[in-house]
Amino acid sequence: MPVISTQQDPQTLTLTLEAEFAAPVERVWQLWADPRQLERWWGPPTWPATFDRHELKPGGECRYYMTGPDGTKARGWWSVTVADEPNRIEFYDGFANEDGEPVDPDDKTHGLVELSQDGDRTRMHVVSTFRDAEQMKKMSDMGMEEGMTQAVNQIDALLAG
After folding, report:
1. Which are the contacts of 27, defined by CB distance < 8 A and separation ≥ 6?
2. Domains of the chain, with CATH numbers?
3. Model pTM?
4. CA-atom Rg of the chain in angstroms
């Protein structure tokens, strides 16, 4: 399993995930940069993702939805602030309405992805920062930590195939 650890820190309002992959950093970057590859792992196995828009560049916007087992669609958005290929991505992330636009632009988390080469392996460090304790609890209660772990643990199969 690629996920090494996850940690929630109420003091800093963060959820941190560490993972490691037997692939070069440029290959792992492609899993973020190519929307068709991103769709194959972004959601947990029972909630696959579809990206309607994917602009991985500073100022870029991404729109996606995850489809649940009963057909329910959970929509989300990213606003990309940093895309430093192949090592760093930063974005704001939130819930979207039926049109894919933010339900509440202020109800967002900050996402940080850092990829680093470690010999023949790539280390992925992901930090989600919440705006307050209430938002952190809400996302925790929704199963964010488990969902992220399940999603990232799908990456090895993509790298192998």
Report:
1. 122, 159
2. 3-160 (3.30.530.20)
3. 0.94
4. 15
